[in-house]
Give the backbone structure.
Amino acid sequence: MKPASKKFDLVIIGSGPGGQRAAFQAAKAGKSVAIVERDAMGGGCLHWGTLPSKSFRESVYRWSIGSRRSHPDIKKLFERKNRVIKNEVRIIEEQLVRNHVEVIYGDAVFAGDHSIEVTTKKGLLHLQCEKAVIATGARPVSPDFAEVDGERVLDSNTILLLSGLPKSMVVLGGGIIGCEYASMLVNLGVQVTLIDKRPEILANVDREIVCHMVDQLASKGMRLVLERNTKAVHTHDTGVIVRMVDGEIIEAEACFIALGRQGNTESLGLASVGLTADARGLLKVDQDFKTATDWIYAVGDVIGFPALASTSMEQGRIAVCHAFDLKEAIGKMALYPIGIYTIPEISTVGKTEEELVDAGIPYVAGRAKYKELARGQIVNDEWGFLKMLVHRDTQEILGVHIIGDSAADLIHIGQAVMILGGRLSYFIENVFNYPTFAEAYKSAAFNAINQILGRPSVG
């Protein structure tokens, strides 16, 4: 029996942020669009990654600054996560219907030139398309020395399925995911040991910001172990034993593994369309997110760094605009913010101090402490601060780095000024609402100009 066949202008494999934005962009341009999803609408971002972890983080944060009950109820903390996921799925499905995007559930495999086969519950479906976008995302890496069982040994796909809160946990990996969960857990009263084989955590973040975060987490009992390799993780009835290469043994009730991610490309039949993924399952693309095969694009985690939901969305939009030669404004994503949802929150845009020092660029660092802002006193954030890096000669804003309440929202003020070519004078000459965290920009600007002019800074 011949399989059913359908034809589309665009077929997108994966319904995460990159796939969604690609679909909407094409649909708005009048293209016929299909999304093929293997698991659940919204992909890993919505069900196991960004959205549930940030929803859980919000619940933890509210609990940590609230009543501080002696034993947090993890089931109640998960309620927000479950509610957010359910509502977001409904919203996405409604948007896809309104935009006449067809959703096909099944496993997609490339089957030759402009051809994709999908194995659905009803059988094989053959799709013909002018263009295709791979937006299949990535999954947690499983190291050889540990087996994720979802009970004692966890990863980012399983940690939010816990039925109870462990008293102690070892976190392997000091990247964004490892640090986010380590900070959530320590704020819930869990004894956390964060281990990384590298000499530093959050390697791409300004060092002053990272040190500030580590100081706060250490004050809550977190132990940080750097430049140490893990040999094995063993489980037993009441916990785990983590054996280090140097012989140290660390015991805890659970272990969370955050050692990178692997692209979901192995089942796509890439060879049939002349594509090859690297050892991490990632695809190479050009500046327009086109692969080596002219009619296929790839976006999101499946192409690697920066692997953010926000950048994935823009990649999806740019890819479609290029694929169909749409006359839309297309940026090159030269300056984008990074939000790290640790507790405290971190967000950054532009150059770090380390990068400016290495490049020999003359600069000053204007700082504003949250505890000196009225808003900081109101919300009781005494740790937060904003740092603005300014070119000493031109007064151009080179970077903004924030740790504390609302950092991921606040960063966009600095981003906008930088992209529009604003200088230090913008912050000095304009009025900011009082009491707000946005005032930190004005305070940091005065701190910077005082340094440039050789004046003593207040405070």
Residues 4-140+262-323 form a domain with the FAD/NAD(P)-binding domain fold (CATH 3.50.50.60). The chain has a mean pLDDT of 94.
